Amino acid sequence: MVEILQDHIPYDISEKPNLPGVKPLSLGGWLVEDEAFAMQMAERDRLISELPDEVFRDAGASFEAKTEVLEQVLLVLRGRSNYKISANQVIRPDKVVIKLDGDPLLTAARLVQEDLCLHEKSGDEHVLTAGVLCFPASWTLAEKVGRPLSAVHGPVVEYDENIAKRVQRMFDGLKADRPIWRYNLLRYVRPDLYQPRSESDARRIDLDYGSGDYVRTEHQSLIRMPKTSSVLFSIHTYIVKD
After folding, report:
1. How many Å from the N-terminal Cα to the C-terminal Cα in the chain?
2. CA dihedral 75, 177, 128, 78 (to 10 degrees)
3. Residue 217 phi/psi, 5° resolution?
């Protein structure tokens, strides 16, 4: 068990979040650094090194879309004095050096606390074409990548046909200069950030979420890439002890 906690949750979680339940988000509020940065980033680096096939999947995402994600991340980080960015590398606030010569999406996910899931339009729906998911909250990237939104959210009880249509319209109407966000709210027995679970595995309240002393919430953002029109779903995970 690895306990990496924040001191507090920086938004009001007193109301149960509904689907889709989105709000406007400023570009400045997209990539968040909090007091758990160093420990979360160390855990991300460990998982990417030890479990690369579990936390990074690519189902044929366009290189241009992945590259644009990295470009947009770097654009934000260049405005922060605690990141040292050069042509070939980035020095993070925790002094870890990240080379810029690898897969663009994976590289971007090593610079920030957010997990990054890339969606591209195919036919009538957006498809999860690639993702870096180091901190899954009871799901796996392997079972979702390459699937359209309706299939990705199939196991969610509240995600009916009406919600599916609303979410697809939301993806279609998303503007590059107007990102949006929502949050979810879960309770876990264990504080581990890495908690994958297959769709075929039944949840056990004593081991999984539904009870326990740890409140887990995800700040989930949607941002459209201006050049490729792909949509990035980013997830910033907060865990506090009740």
Report:
1. 17
2. 10
3. -140, 145
